[in-house]
Write a structure and sequence with these properties.
By secondary structure, this protein is α+β, with helices and mostly antiparallel strands. The protein has two domains: 114 residues, L-fuculose-1-phosphate Aldolase; 156 residues, Class II aldolase/adducin N-terminal domain (L-fuculose-1-phosphate Aldolase, 3-Layer(aba) Sandwich). The protein has ten helices and nine strands. The chain has a nine-stranded mixed sheet with strand order 2-5-4-3-1-6-9-8-7, sandwiched between helices. Strand 7, helix 8 and strand 8 form a beta-alpha-beta unit. Helix 4 packs parallel to helix 8 and helix 6 packs across helix 9.
Length: 271
């Protein structure tokens, strides 16, 4: 059996969490990632019949029974994942009762998955109905996106439109726009349910005055979605207080979307 520490999915988690910490998105124990794995790939590195212990999830994820995920741990710092993945990450499988996680590897300090796991599982369920290839849910606190929450209306159409104006690539990268939630108590099933509802139509959901959730087929895709929003938010925060001389017009956004063949939210334009 191969060394689990050399598994591509462990390497991806190490590199992604290191990048997110380096960019200043995930201070202290902020941020969390869940990545749905292929069972056959996991079998190359683990005996999946060997359950270390079981952990209640606090949520009925019946639709995900048997699915395997690698998940960041509760209270864990992203800056430590690369040097100590066995403590800061865990591989879990949703048990037959739908409400229990079977630990297959990791959390070797007797800890468990992120407190946001129910929100992650709800979002996985919602996105899989839209895109059966969705595998990643990522939550983070990108600085400029968060700052933008305090000076911009938290209206999905207006928030998305402003981001689309900031970078030529934005309407191409996230043509489906950005969902927005008001401030809600984190770590609860209520915010998880609200996020999952938004995930039915958006791959990106802003948590007001908190951070952002992203979903995608791969780690790179999901990271890239959030990275593009953050770049646009940074440009907005650098220019919002200055006179606006130029902008990307709605007609130009349409031209971009049609040239690159993306299905964009026409109702988010002002024409």
């Amino acid at each position: 059996m191969k060394d689990i520490l050399t598994a591509p999915f462990v390497e991806e988690m190490k590199k992604t969490t290191a990048n997110m910490y380096r960019l200043g998105w995930d201070e202290r124990n902020g941020g969390n990632i869940s990545y749905m794995l292929d069972e056959n790939e996991v079998k190359e590195y683990l005996d999946i019949d060997n359950v270390i212990r079981t952990i209640p999830t606090g949520f009925d994820a019946t639709d995900l029974i048997g699915k395997i995920f690698i998940v960041t741990g509760t209270g864990k710092y992203f800056k430590n994942v690369e040097s100590d993945p066995e403590t800061n990450l865990g591989i879990i499988r949703i048990a037959k009762d739908g409400t229990t996680a079977e630990l297959l590897w990791g959390y070797n300090d007797n800890s468990k998955f992120t407190s946001e796991l129910p929100a992650h599982l709800m979002s996985h369920m919602a996105r899989l109905k839209v895109d059966p290839e969705n595998r990643v849910i990522m939550h983070t606190h990108p600085t400029h996106t968060l700052a933008m929450n305090y000076v911009h209306e938290l209206d999905e159409k207006k928030f998305t439109h402003t981001l689309w104006e900031m970078c030529t690539e934005c309407i191409v990268v996230f043509p489906d726009g950005v969902g927005v939630l008001p401030w809600m108590l984190c770590g609860t099933n209520e915010i998880g349910e609200a996020t999952a509802k938004k995930m039915e139509e958006f791959r990106l959901v802003v948590w007001g005055m908190h951070g952002i959730y992203g979903a995608g087929k791969t780690m790179d895709e999901t990271f890239g979605l959030i990275e593009t929003v953050e770049k646009a938010a940074q440009i907005y925060m650098l220019t919002a207080h200055l006179p606006r001389i130029n902008t990307i017009k709605d007609e130009e956004m349409i031209e971009l979307a049609e040239f690159f063949g993306v299905n964009y939210r026409k109702d988010f334009l002002n024409i």
